[in-house]
Amino acid sequence: MNTKQKHTELIKTEAKRLGFLSCGISKAQFLEEEAPRLEKWLSNNMHGEMQYMENHFDKRLDPTKLVDNSKSVISLLLNYYPKDIQNQNSYKLSKYAYGTDYHFIIKDKLKSLLNYIQDEIGEVEGRAFVDSAPVLDKAWAAKSGLGWIGKHSNLLTQQVGSFYFIAELIIDLELEHDSITSDHCGTCTACIDACPTEAIKEPYVVDGSKCISYFTIELKDNLPTEFKGKFDDWMFGCDVCQDVCPWNRFSKAHNEPLFNPHPELLSMTKKDWEDITEDTFKKVFQKSAVKRTKYSGLTRNIKFLKD
Question: Where, in this chain's numbering, is tRNA bound (predicted)?
Answer without folding.
Answer: 220
